[in-house]
Amino acid sequence: MKTTSPAERDIQIAKATGRDTRTEILKRSIRANVPLRKTFVQAPRGSTSRHGPLRDFVTGRDLRGLKAYLLIVAACSNGTDGWSTRHDSAVWARMMDIDRTATDQAARTGAWRALRRLQERNLITCTRKGTMITVTLLREDGSGAPYERPVGQSEQDLYLQIPAAFWTKGYDEQIDLPALALLLVVLREKNWSKFPAERAPDWYGWSPDTHERGLKKLLDLGLVERRPQYTKAPLAPSGVTMAYQYQRTAPMRPRKPRKQAATKLNGGSAAKPEHTQTKKPAARAARQGR
Question: How many whole angstroms separate alpha carbon 246 and alpha carbon 224?
């Protein structure tokens, strides 16, 4: 019977996990919050269809691909390497947790296939040389246009922010596909918005049942909170109607960059926040209907 030496056991214990890998990627990208154009979730008003690229992940049941894409945005969007990131295929596999249930070669193959699906959706380009895979961001609307950092100067350029805590605190490991889709929907809108399930097929492209399950899971995870809103309704039996409003909880609120927070504590002038929107587009975003 083969035995494992103490040295070999120490190596196994010290091996990096998927969360370790994701956390290191976020550290390298220097991200307090990850900017993502709102057009990934929903097309602007006036478009032929309001569905964004997110719909295809939900209807295709591609949770792995969606998680990988969001992390790629986090890794690339600081622009230090031309909107690209490069890793060994084994690192990509560990980043996606594929290595948990597959052999080394199967995990590498699975990672490459997941990245190719993102490429087919015109969200990235990916190239492979030996075991190294380079991924480059494209625009989030799935048009295949080159990526540029969003600055919020137009409706097509407005963005939501995903706090790094989503990955570093392990929420990404607990969330399911409907909940992740609805998290992006909630992050897209202002606080205390309504998200009627009956409008989900038209607004987002998935079923009311998926919509409701996603909101319930977010409540269970403590990532959103809700409150009832009552409206006078003269023709309703009770004279009122009730609908829930939702907002993100503290873990999902954008974080201030460390340098900015430190400057304020020291009484100095704060640096301009990361990806700060001007007041005019921000106000427009707050008023924007779905």
Answer: 7
Neighbouring C-beta atoms of residue 287, cutoff 10 Å = 8
Vertex 211, ends 199 and 277: CA angle to 5°?
A: 80
Of 254, 250, 270, the residue nearest 33 (C-alpha): 254
User: Identity (one letter) of the amino acid at 130?
Assistant: G
Among positive and negative, which fits the CA dihedral 107, 109, 110, 114?
Answer: positive
To 10 degrees, what angle do helices 18-29 and 63-76 make? 30
Taken as a whole, the chain contains a residue count of 290
Q: Which residues of 122-160 are buried (b: 16+ CB within 10 A; e: fewer)?
A: ebbbbeeeeeebebbbbbbbbeeeebeebebeeeebbbb
Cα separation, 14 vs 28, in Å, equals: 21
pLDDT tens for 232-244 read 989 889 899 999 9
pLDDT digits (tens, 9 = 90+) for 128-171: 999 999 999 999 999 999 999 999 888 899 999 999 999 999 99
Contact, 158 vs 35, CB < 8 A? no
* 111 CB neighbour count, 10 Å cutoff: 26
Q: What is the CA radius of gyration of the chain?
A: 21
130: its two tokens = 């030996």
* DSSP H/E element including 225: strand 224-232
| pTM, two decimal places | 0.84
* DSSP H helices in 77-103: 89-95
Give ∠ CA 206-101-96 in degrees, rounded to 5: 55
Integer Cα distance of 267 and 209 in angstroms: 50
